[in-house]
Specification:
This protein has helices at residues 10-21, 32-41, 82-91, 108-113, 158-169, 180-191, 194-200, 207-224, 236-241, 256-263, 274-284, 289-304, 313-322, and strands spanning 3-6, 26-29, 43-46, 51-54, 58-59, 72-75, 98-102, 119-125, 128-132, 135-138, 140-142, 146-151, 173-176, 242-244. The protein is α/β, with parallel strands linked by helices. The strands form 3 sheets. An 8-stranded mixed beta sheet has the order 5-2-1-6-7-8-12-13. Helix 7 (194-200) packs across helix 10 and helix 7 (194-200) packs across helix 12.
Length: 328
């Protein structure tokens, strides 16, 4: 099985590098300065334990790849870029190959299933960042991360088993799930705080706001009849397999949302994190003013090019209070 990593960013880069280092056949799809650096010098993978440079083919578009029937295609871009990526895969002649949504949120699988019959979800727990063009940093030991894998909308098949085996060989803990979306809905609860860190800064104390966002989200899940698994601190696998450690010379870069704002790319995934809760709230008549506020704030920060930490906690709390979103 050859693995195509579509989006060689923080997560995709870590996965691609780890797979290639384990001797597996990988092709990356990337863009910009990151692509040029990989094509020129390979990809540097930094971890708390070692630094390794790896070379693998990397292209700018799926049409540059001659796809095989047994290729596994990993989508590792942000959700706002998924539709364009799916269009490019169709243009490249992809039809029945297994598509794995190695992405946050719960929207990507549904988007992919409109165009492709063999869609799989992957819950991603992997603290990683692009630390420079051609360089990714993965902060977890002893494993790079923990992935839950399963077919969408439910069940599993041989594609999941094969990918899990490949990931295990690449030092990523992989578990085949019969209901991966329960895990992904659980991860979504954790990702609701991405915008808090991005807006208020890495050092801000936003635990009370985090609890508020989660309370709203759980209410929408219950109204919608959505079950979820706790993949946070209560997940025993984390203590055993995924401990975050510093990497010498690499400053903490924060969540994927924080990294997106820092790069100033003009878009972030908040509409598919907090925005998912807003959607459910509107569909099922449940109030979610705090998630609505932060979804809109994320869009404004991306639109106006605001950097991480540009909003004070006092400002956010005052605006939330004016909306009636904070307890009086």
């Amino acid at each position: 099985m050859r693995i195509i990593v579509y989006g060689v960013g923080a997560i995709g880069g870590t996965v691609a590098a780890a797979l290639a280092l384990s001797g597996q056949e990988v092709i990356g799809i990337a863009r910009g300065a990151h692509l040029k650096a990989i094509q020129s010098d390979g990809l540097l993978l930094r971890t708390p334990e070692k630094t390794e440079r790896v070379r693998f083919p990397c292209v700018s578009d799926p049409t540059e790849i001659e796809f095989r029937p047994d290729d596994a295609i990993l989508l590792t871009m942000k959700t706002q870029d998924t539709l364009a990526a799916l269009d490019r895969l169709r243009a490249a002649g992809v039809v029945g190959q297994a598509i794995f949504c190695v992405q946050n949120g719960v929207t990507n699988e549904r988007l992919a299933l409109r165009s492709f019959p063999e869609v799989h979800g992957v819950t991603v727990m992997m603290p990683a960042a692009i630390s420079a063009p051609g360089e990714v940093s993965a902060f977890s030991v002893p494993r790079h991360g923990i992935f839950d894998i399963g077919r969408y909308p439910g069940g599993s098949n041989d594609h999941d088993t094969k990918l899990a085996k490949s990931l295990e060989a690449a030092n990523v803990a992989a578990f085949v799930s019969q209901d991966v979306m329960q895990s992904k809905y659980g991860k979504l609860l954790l990702n609701l705080s991405n915008i808090l860190q991005a807006a208020l800064g890495l050092d801000a104390d936003y635990r009370h706001l985090e609890a508020l966002l989660r309370t709203e989200a759980e209410a929408t899940y219950k109204a919608a009849g959505i079950a979820w698994l706790d993949v946070g601190a209560a997940d025993a696998r984390r203590a055993q397999l995924m401990n975050q450690k510093p990497i010498t010379g690499i400053d903490p870069l924060g969540s994927s949302t924080t990294q997106s704002l820092a790069r100033g790319g003009g878009s972030i995934e908040t509409d598919y994190l907090n925005g998912e809760i807003v959607l459910l709230a509107r569909l099922y008549g449940v109030p979610a003013p705090a998630n609505t506020y932060f979804a809109e704030l994320g869009a404004r920060m991306a639109r106006e090019g605001l950097k991480p930490g540009a909003i004070s906690a006092a400002q956010a709390e005052a605006e939330l209070s004016a909306l009636g979103a904070l307890p009086g």
